[in-house]
Amino acid sequence: MIDTFPLEKITEPLLAWFQGHARVLPWREEPTPYRVWVSEIMLQQTRVEAVKPYFERFTAALPTIQDLAECEEEKLLKLWEGLGYYNRVRNMQIAAKVVMEKYGGELPADYQQLLKLKGIGHYTAGAIASIAYQISVPAVDGNVLRVVARVTADDSDIMKQSVRTKVENELQKIIPKDHASAFNQALMELGATVCLPNGAPKCEECPWQTFCEAKRLDCWQLLPVKSKAKPRKIEEKTVFIIRDGEKVVLHKRPAKGLLAGLYEFPNTDGHLSEEEALLWVKEQKLEPLRIQKLDPAKHIFSHVEWHMTGYVIRVDELTENKGEMLFVEAADSEEHYPIPAAFAAYTKYVHIRLGNEKYSDYSEMG
């Protein structure tokens, strides 16, 4: 248990291990406050290897906080396309504007002031403060919670804020004042590469193997304890890939709510039959010529799952935009219109790629 375990034992072997095992990552090469901030927001819910090209493109296009603050929204969302959780980048822009107005374009070197910025919680504030400014504050993410739970054999529920706060408080007592950055990054690295979230930990590679309680008790598979989230709501959708040969129909989502302000293929609730789908298209004042049923697809959000069926529908010539429907060249949609990964299963029918697919051989992005 964390209350009885001598936590100070973890520091020296951890730092020594990190010196020889730290991965080379683009944000580590030049850990400015801005680059640390961008990387930490991107790394939430996304694998390191997937983040690398996003990070490089984002910081090349928007190298400073001022650039982020002044970026036009559709360009910003296009840079984020495929990462998901678009409110995160919107919150970054809100915070960037505050930083420009209040802090002269530099993130404050103060943990409490960082916490006041939109979208920056305890973990991100701790990461920026410690990695960029060498301030001795912990940065506790899922990796850190896992390795601490295992080394101490603590069976507290890590989904409870009180438990996260306790871990932060205990780490605060032992974080080395002159190695805050290395200490926090080493804890994250250990969780990402050795004490793994899925599958058996690589105990033979762990610097704590001689005193790890989970190893001694052979109970790693029970730790950390994590209460189950509520089951996601299932929503059925029918997605329409409407084309006239050259053009494709897109629809801009509302400014608020799920996937706010992004572009999507037209869709409606429920799974429609071919006859119902053709009627729906006619109701949009379009003239369907041919219809092709597509394989079902699924996309998982935090609290909801979309179970989708789809149709490619060829229509008579798309000329003037109608209401909220936009008729765009397919190639243009790839370059200029941010489309969420929820529709990734359907982009191949208009020969466009999303996110990293445009720049690499990644076949699928979450």
Tell me the distance between the termini. 36 Å
CATH architecture of the largest domain: Orthogonal Bundle
Reported by name, the CATH topology of the largest domain is Endonuclease III, domain 1
| Unreliable parts | 360-366
Structure explained in plain terms:
The protein has 366 residues and is an alpha+beta fold. It has two domains: 7-222, Hypothetical protein, domain 2 (Endonuclease III, domain 1); 233-358, Nucleoside Triphosphate Pyrophosphohydrolase (Alpha-Beta Complex), CATH 3.90.79. Helices cover 41% and strands 14% of the residues. The chain is built from 15 helices and seven strands. Strand 5 and strand 6 form a beta hairpin. Helix 3 packs antiparallel against helix 9. It is elongated. The two termini are 36 Å apart. The relative contact order is 0.12.
Compile the SSE list and pairings:
Elements: H1 11-21, H2 26-29, H3 33-43, H4 48-61, H5 65-70, H6 73-80, H7 87-103, H8 111-115, H9 122-133, H10 142-152, H11 161-174, H12 180-193, H13 213-217, E1 233-243, E2 247-252, E3 263-264, E4 267-269, H14 274-283, E5 288-300, E6 304-315, E7 325-329, H15 330-336
Parallel strand pairs: 1-6
Antiparallel strand pairs: 1-4, 2-3, 2-7, 5-6
Helix pairs in contact: 1-12, 3-4, 3-9, 9-12, 10-12
